[in-house]
Structures are given as structure tokens and as C-alpha cells.
Amino acid sequence: MRAFELESVEAVDQAVSHRRVHDGEAFIAGGTTLLDLVKLDVMQPEKVVDVSRLPLKRIETLEDGRLKVGALVSNTDLAKHEIVMRGYPVLSEALLSGASTGLRNMATTGGNVMQRTRCPYFRDPDMPCNKREPGSGCSAIEGINRNHSVLGTSEQCIATHPSDMCVGMVAAGATVVLEGPDGQREVAFEDYHLLPGETPEREHDLKPGELITHVILDAPRGGGQHYLKLRDRASYEFALASCAAIVTLDGDSVSDVRVALGGVATKPWRATAAEEALKGQPATQENFERAAEAAFADAVAYSHNGYKITLGKQAVVRALRDATAAARA
Ligand SMILES: Cc1cc2nc3c(=O)[nH]c(=O)nc-3n(C[C@H](O)[C@H](O)[C@H](O)COP(=O)(O)OP(=O)(O)OC[C@H]3O[C@@H](n4cnc5c(N)ncnc54)[C@H](O)[C@@H]3O)c2cc1C
Ligand code: SF4
């Protein structure tokens, strides 16, 4: 592990102005991603700016019904917040399915949005990886790619986005609020993470020097909600496939639906084709299966991860079925 300079800041403008506009600096919040990657020599910041004391730990309802979540709200506090449990159960379930209690106590909302892929080649500086070192090649495409993506891939990178929380947020609908040298701006949550394309090193729409200050959740959608996570073991494990579903019924028909996927895609994935296939249709097993087919119509399998297409479809069907049951309850 290389030595770095550590600086603590107490105010947002201090954090933003302290951050020099180059790769040699990084923010640290809970530290559960950053410190691992520094120890592995994957990230090599010369300076780390500790933002954990910034006044960004509040959760407040806005006049228009949306919920403003400070970037430093811990994953535990967000999952257990009364309004989140009542109005956004899909998000609460997604958060509680992630990592472990100890990690969730440290992990922050902003840090979770910014967490990096768990691709083992990315985490091994001795292996070629376009995301870590652009132009060096992708070791996963011809390598062990059992945990990699089947949606949103490119010839440069097929790494999955590992977050559960972000999948819940895509389903619930949200906005990322950023503060930077040029002031404040907002980005729709589902546009914030980028597809790898030709530039897998660019993972999100965060401009140099910017800090995430808040995530604002859309007003609660109601309906029945469920987050289903399928993984190799029942806890302390990343998703092989996951699905966040929100189903609103009008009688026996689906009047509105949101479907988001994790573990199968290069970014937290909104499955709009599945939503379109289901809207206005009776909430039946057959129609859930049609929606699942639509969700994976463009999926591309690599040598070891073809099973994810089947598993992902099963996750969609089961999540829709459970969300529908919750809507009927
Ligand atoms: C063993 C293990 C298991 C895990 N399992 C899961 C799991 O099952 N599901 C899941 O979803 N996650 C899982 N995680 C990931 C965990 O959720 C993340 O590590 C955590 O959310 C990151 O938050 P943090 O505050 O600790 O971020 P940090 O480590 O402090 O920062 C992470 C990155 O975000 C940047 N950053 C932090 N805050 C901001 C901000 N406000 N604005 C801009 N940039 C910022 C940092 O510079 C850094 O690059 C696991 C992690 C570990 C170590
Ligand atoms: S999948 Fe992406 S992160 Fe993994 S080795 Fe290839 S380029 Fe690197």
C-alpha cells in the first residue's frame, strides 16, 4: 500500500475546492471500497480527502413529496428509515441484501453509488484491464467470466456493476445532486452510470472536482414492491442476478410497473422493454414470462456466463410475482 496525504474537510465548498482536478485525489466516506482498492494498488491516490464529517447525513421529505437523502447517510440508516421502509420497500430490501451489517453501517449513499466493479481482473494490477488501464485489453472476455455481464457490454469491458442499492434506486426513480467547481447540477439516476462502450474507464457522469451531495428519490410510487437477489450463498455475497420490481394494479391488470436489474449488466439496469411488455396487461405468470423474455432479448452470453440469461429471467418472473402479491395484499 502506497502512502497518501490525508485531509479532512468540514464543509461542502471546502471539499469541492480542496479537490484538485486530476486523478491523484480521491474522496473517502465510509472507506469500504476505497481502502481495499488502495491496498490492492488498483487506486493510487496521492491525496485522500475525508468527507465523512460533512453535514450530509439527513433524510428529509421535500414539499413535492420526494425524499432527499444526504450522501453520507449510511446504508443501514437509509434501509431502516421509517419513510424508506414504508414508501420505498424495494430500496430498503435492496440495501439490506448487500454486504454485511458492519459494512452497511460504514457504507454511505454516495460511496455506494460510486463503488467499483468486483471484476477480479480489475482488482489485480498484474492483469490487463481496460477499465483500470485503458488500452491494455480485457482479461475477462476470453477469461473466467462467470460473474460478468450479459447486458450493456462492449468489446472493451463486460464487468458488472455490483450495487444492490443502485438497482433499488433505478426502480424507485431518483436524481443525483452534484456540487462542483462550477456550482450545483442534477443528473437522472439512471443516466448517471455510463455504459462501458469504448471508454470503460469512464464509469459515471461525475465531472472532475465534483462531489455527490444528495440523492433525491422520486415521490413514493405505491404499488407492490420487491427486491430479489440471487447469489452463490445466502449472505455477504454480490448478486449473480437481481431484480427490483414495483407493480401497480388496476383490478387484475398492471397499470404501472418498474423493473430494474442487477448482477447481469454493466450498469444498474432499467428493463424498459419488460415494463412495456407488461403495462396494461393482466398480471399473470404468462405475462411475467413475456416481460422477462423482453428484458433479456438483447443479452449477449460469454463463455461462462450464459446461465445468467436464464437466471435473470427467473429473477424477473419471481420479483414480479412477489411484487404483485404485495400489491394485492
Ligand atoms: C466484503 C464486501 C462485500 C460487499 N457486498 C456488497 C453487496 O452485496 N452489495 C452491494 O451493493 N455492495 C456491497 N459492497 C460494497 C459496499 O456497498 C460499498 O463498498 C460501499 O457502499 C461504499 O461506500 P463507502 O462510503 O464505504 O465508500 P468509499 O470507500 O468511502 O468510497 C468509494 C468511492 O466513492 C467515492 N466517493 C465516496 N463518497 C463520494 C461522494 N459523496 N461523492 C463522490 N465520490 C464519492 C470515493 O472517492 C471512492 O472512489 C461490499 C463491500 C465489501 C468490502
Ligand atoms: S471486464 Fe472490464 S473490468 Fe474486467 S478485465 Fe475486462 S475491462 Fe477490466
Provide the helix percentage: 25-40%
Q: What is the CATH topology assignment of the domain at 224-328? A: Enolase-like, domain 1
- Give the strand order of the largest sheet, numbering strands 1, 2, ... along the chain: 4-5-8-6-7
The number of strands is 12
Taking Cα atoms only, what radius of gyration do you get, to the nearest Å? 19 Å
Keywords: FAD, Flavoprotein, Oxidoreductase
Organism: Kushneria phyllosphaerae
Domain FAD-binding PCMH-type: 1-222
Pfam families: CO_deh_flav_C, FAD_binding_5
What would you note in describing this structure?
This protein has helices spanning 12-18, 34-39, 75-80, 82-87, 89-96, 101-106, 109-113, 165-172, 189-192, 272-278, 285-295, 307-328, and strands at 5-8, 25-28, 47-50, 59-61, 67-70, 174-180, 183-188, 211-217, 224-230, 241-250, 253-262, 269-270. It has 12 helices and 12 strands. Among the domains are: 5-50; 224-328, Enolase-like, domain 1 (2-Layer Sandwich), CATH 3.30.390. It is of the alpha+beta class and 329 residues long. The model has no long low-confidence stretch (mean pLDDT 96). It binds flavin-adenine dinucleotide and iron/sulfur cluster. Iron/sulfur cluster binds at residues 117, 119, 121-122, 129-131, 138-140, 148, 157-159, 200. Flavin-adenine dinucleotide (FAD) is lined by residues 26-34, 36, 51, 71, 75, 98-99, 103, 106-108, 110-112, 114-115, 162-165, 211-212, 238.
